[in-house]
Amino acid sequence: MRHPTPTFSLPSFRRPRTLVLACAAALPAFAVPGMAVAQPSQAAVERPLQLSIPAQPLALTVDALARQAGVGIGFDASLAVGKTAPAMQGTMTLRQALARALDGSGLEAPVGTGGASIRRRDAGSDGATLPTVTVTADGAPEGSAANAYRAASSSLGALGTKSLLDTPFSINVITRDLLDNQQAHSLVDAVKSDAAIAPGSNYTNGTGEVLSVRGVLLSYRNNYKLDGQDLIGFLGAPQMPVEHLESIEILRGAGGFLYGFGTPGGIVNMVSKRPTETPVRSIAIEGTGSGTALVHADLGGRFGENDRFGYRINAVDEEGDTYVKDGGHIKRRSGSVALDWRITPDLVWSVDALQQERRIDAVYYQLVPNADGRASNYAIAAAPAALDGSTRLASPFTYSDARSTTFGTSLAWHIAPRWDARLSYRQWKQDMQSNHSFLFANAAGAYSEQQISLPARVKSEQAQLLVTGGFDTGNVRHDLVLGISANDIRAQESNDYQSKVLGTATLASPGGFADPGLSTTWIDGGWAFPERQRSLFASDTLHLGDRWDLILGARHNRFTSNSYDKSAVTPTLAAVFRPVPWLSTYGSYVEALEQGSTAPRTATNANEVFPPIKSKQLEFGLKTEQADWSASAAVFRTTQGLTYTTETGRYSQDGEARYQGMELAGKAKLGRPWTLLTSAVFLDAENTKTSLGQYDGLRTPGASKRQFAAYVEYALPTMPLTLTGGWRYVSARPLDMANNWSLPGYATFDLGARYVTRMAGLRTTFRLNLDNVGDKAYWLMAGSNRLVQGAPRTVKLGAQFEF
Asked: Domain 272-384+392-802 - what CATH class?
């Protein structure tokens, strides 16, 4: 890309407010005693700055940089209105800091000895454009392999977008580049490099995805978000197509104040792709060794006078045989569009929509390990030996067919400097026709297959008003958050429900059962599980000088269903201390309110609804951000209401599950060729305070003591080829409440490579990934009686063309 020679003429100011803001940014450099203008030297411009600037409106960041550098920065502030600059921590020059602040804004700021001038980015006389990037202190795009896939900030629900270094919570951001390079198409694929997250099912064998964070199973209803608002699933996570996401933000631990209702394990916030300042043109194709083919197109940019209108369009088509032999098949199509309109420089309206159709054949919901292998026997016993994931257990005529639609809109208003408001709404619908199987198997491999035919639908609507602002009291800077949220969730199963035991066999020679021809239809019985969630929340982040932050917050929750109406206040208290700009230490206390359990159909008290549960979490940690690496460590203790099925078959919500442990994570660029992502979790999860005490002190089912994950890349110095490798280890997990049986630990290894070149003038990236190279057979686990095969060796070969 070529740029014209920089000129430092005074910008054109069209409004008095614009002139005031721009002059305020330049004032520190030009307003000196005697009204003499001090021109900074080249040394002053290139002087390293020690920065600790939070994510905030772009105009405020420019003002902060001008003050700290002592350099005039002229600009038309109308260009900055409605734009946000990311957090900046550590050492960088003014040139590097401005490049980072202006990423994605369509603006640039050439720097010279006389100062800087912010202007619209020129694509160059040849019309070439570059993709949107964030430039970090070492010049690498933020979130890329060259920057160890590191993100500087994350959205945090009620707290808005915050610097990761200044956040008193454990957060991992999975960037778009990492998703692309690992060829991830599901949440299970996306999170495999994070040791704190354990999948409980996989994308292909099972009816839906299940995740646990720090040993706590995430709720289908309240722990998965799209742009901070609820998505709900049926028989698993909401199955959001990953190709339409810009990143995935994982909050490890309770998010009560930040997001409202949910289990205290964590929050998975999926960030959708949005219009970009510079055009995006990309087509990717991919094939797997089993015969699945995928095509993905991604288009985005801006148009109109002053680029007032933005668009982003994504489309995905995938079909073919899965790795499940003799019957596994997938057909998946999805499309999304995101639009925005800058009505005025201070007012932006956004709207987005996504639709997906997904059918997978030869699927089962769970394998229940019992003593006799007979259907409907849910009394847990020793599990059979793990089977390779390519072995088909469910009959080929079983399937899961889901169709989902989401629509969202928001209106963002920049009221005044440091004050913003956002009104947002999202609706999510999912209809599912599930003709899946339940499997029951004993340790010797004798099993029964029971087919379930059940139409179901879920729907959620959430509206939220969020006001953020700030003011100063003496030397204390306050960042305020005020908000109100209303969420209606409804789930319904058809009154036409069919079930049939297909037969018995051995896992060594599964299947061969006749198709009973189950075919249910939708018979409306009304919304069976309606919920209404209402909350008011407020927080104040007090910046006590440059080193201390104190966060005080509270959320008033009201939870209403057919069975109860309960209110509770969940507070948050946290402190952050920065002894030096690149290191922060923190402590936080969080409470969360989650939906009470419903007894399953198989319990003697089937469909009994229990009241909401309040969870508590205490966490201490430290984080560091350096030029080439970042690291974090946290110790935590979380308590959650305990639910389980007794030996008599009664489902109970009784006692507490206590999760305490330590979490370590790091991302590093080791010299030029090496990139390393690594994480570890050491967990002590046990049951306490049960009414009869028979389970006290025993380990909580499904929670492993140790989990490790690593991902490494090596870029060959002589050619544009990068070799990759991954490793994941999960230790043994107890199967039942009494800890009589357990699943063995397992480890998997991945290998891959990517090659970057140009074909027909297009930047082209070829990717090859071999997941589970050793073809390890292992069980995934969700709760105490749900086992699903882990994925077998999988080969993925793809090419991405950017133009």
From this structure: mainly beta
Six token digits for residue 473: 């009291």
More confident residue, 297 or 52: 297
Strand partners, 588: 574, 619
| Per-residue pLDDT reduced to its tens digit, 664-694 | 999 999 988 999 999 999 999 999 988 778 8
CA distance 158 to 222: 15
pLDDT of 703 strictly over 60: yes
List the domain boundaries for the chain: 16-120, 272-384+392-802
Residue 190 DSSP SS3: helix
- Contact (CB, 8 A) for 523 and 392: no
Copy the structure tokens of residue 6: 């920089």
Cα 56 from Cα 32, distance rounded (Å): 28
SS3 466: strand
How do beta strands 419-441 and 364-369 pair? Answer: parallel
Q: Which residue has the tokens 């990423």?
A: 103
Check: pTM over 0.90? Answer yes or no: no
Strand 84-85 to 119-120 pairing: unpaired
Distances (CA, A) of 138 to 230, 264, 479, 583, 663: 37, 37, 30, 18, 28
| DSSP3 helix / strand / coil % (the chain, rounded to 5) | 10, 55, 40
Both tokens assigned to 289 = 């060794």
Segment 283-304 mean pLDDT: 96
- Rounded to whole angstroms, what are the CA distances from 570 to 162, 260, 460, 479? 21, 9, 23, 20
- Model confidence at 352, in pLDDT bands (50, 70, 90)? very high
Stated as kind and residue range, the H or E segment containing 30 is helix 16-30
Q: Which of 173, 261, 160, 190 is nearest to 220 (CA)?
A: 261
Position 475: which residue type? Answer: N
> For 723-750, what is the HEC assignment?
EEEEEEEECCEECCCCCCCEECCEEEEE
Which residue in 120, 77, 75 sits closest to 302, CA to CA? 120
Radius of gyration of the chain (CA): 27
Contact call for residues 392 and 323 (beta carbons, < 8 A): no
CA distances from 374 to 295, 369, 507 (A): 43, 10, 13
Give the C-alpha separation, 39 to 30, whole Å. Answer: 8
Whats the size of the chain, residue-wise?
803
Q: What is the CATH number of domain 16-120?
A: 3.55.50.30
Asked whether the beta carbons of 642 and 653 are under 8 A apart, the reply is: yes
